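Q: My labmate handed me this sequence with no annotations at all. I'd like to see what the chain might look like in three dimensions before we decide whether it's worth expressing. Could you predict it?
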Amino acid sequence: MSEPLTREKANELLHKYVKADHYIVHMYAVEAIMRGLAERLAPEDIEYWGIVGLLHDLDEETCDWKNDMSTHGPVSGDILRKEGYDDQVLIDAICAHNPESGVIAHTTLQYAILAADPMSGFVKAVAQIYPDKKLASVKPKSIKKRFNETRFAKGANRQFMMAIEETGITFDEFILIAMDSMKKISDVLGL
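A: Here is what I predict for the chain of 191 residues:
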């Protein structure tokens, strides 16, 4: 039996396996959103949900996702097992953020990570079109407006973002949670 995976250990793993700053910043953003979602959906599991967000792209620089997207997620599971963390709930949640991994979201945690991943990039993209490039300037209606502009941030999977509604959270509430959560770490995000 291995020791539980703490936020501190998860952060060490992140920095061991991911070197590019833009990936690391993205993973912190997703962690923040997952913590915000947990406050609403699973208040007793805020730390755990945060770890799912923090490690969701652990294999970003390790797996060959550009040639075989199905490897993105399962390779993170391999890394976690190798590091002594054989937590199938965690691994399945990480895999569920990429349906091509073979794990299709069906739990609240899995729907949350599926939605939080693209939402973090979408909120960042909206902030970056403001003159000051600050999250504090972004209004929820701006996010909603840009969401309906399919050419804006077209890499952000809107269907995945809408999956949040499978958790019982409306998309409008999700926008607020994501914005508020990311604002709490705006210094880390450079926004």
